[in-house]
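Note to self: the last two entries modelled the partners one at a time, which told us nothing about the interface. This time every component goes in together.
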Amino acid sequence: MEKKRWDCTALPKGWKMEEVTRKSGLSAGKSDVYYFSPSGKKFRSKPQLARYLGNQMDLSSFDFRTGKMLMSKLNKNRQRLRYDNNNQNKGKPDLNTSLPVRQTASIFKQPVTKVTNHPNNKVKTDPQKAIDQPRQLFWEKKLSGLNAYDIAEELVKTMELPKGLQGVGPGCTDKTLLSAIASALHTSAAPITGQLSAAVEKNPGVWLNTTQPLCKAFIVTDEDIRKQEELVYSVRKRLEEALMADMLAHVEEAANEGDALKDEGNGSEDMDSV
DNA sequence: CAGGTCGGCAC
DNA sequence: GTGCCGACCTG
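The predicted structure of the combined assembly is written out below.
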């Protein structure tokens, strides 16, 4: 019988997978899953796979058996957020939008309020802290491998960036570039110009402007704007339809218990930028 | 000897 | 139960 091998979309292009069912012995009926690298090397376990491409890819949410990235695994591995532990958000999707990077650095001095009986004690604020959040150089690289998934845990197709946008720095892929720009738009009110200094390309470690994403300076053309408007329009249309369908569904089950949030709207807020 | 297959330990 | 890998089997 001919063996079926199919593409594993969760892995880089060219990776294939295969499921073999055991035909005899005590474990007959059990199945083994194998992966094949683009070069044809066979992998028979997740650790083995991780050893091979662990450095270039995060497999913590990768389900070896199905070959897909599983949402349910994401939360288990990542440190649980406080509100999540409190059981207050039970059953609801994780809507936390904070970046998956360290938000504090305890070696830096932080404002402290001393509580005493004296009413004239003031809360000391440190305006410097808000603007000067310490960050690692190239911290955006931590965003690589993060993806959006729809309700069926299928990978949502990533957004396309205009051709004129180019990354800066070691190993900056299109995906990290997208994440970096999206983060920059969310975390700062300042205009995004990209890295204006040409020296950045020669030695990014020295010349990187840390207030800007890992992105070369760019020009936004009328064509870009028009395309983006079209995109926003079509996404809003889809959102409208989804919300309408959702509403109708709710009318039918009106008598039923509380409903989980649908995720249709997620990500759409990024559309009106760039 | 290489690669496919199943047993069985460890978690 | 089941993921993982040793080791057996077969060509």
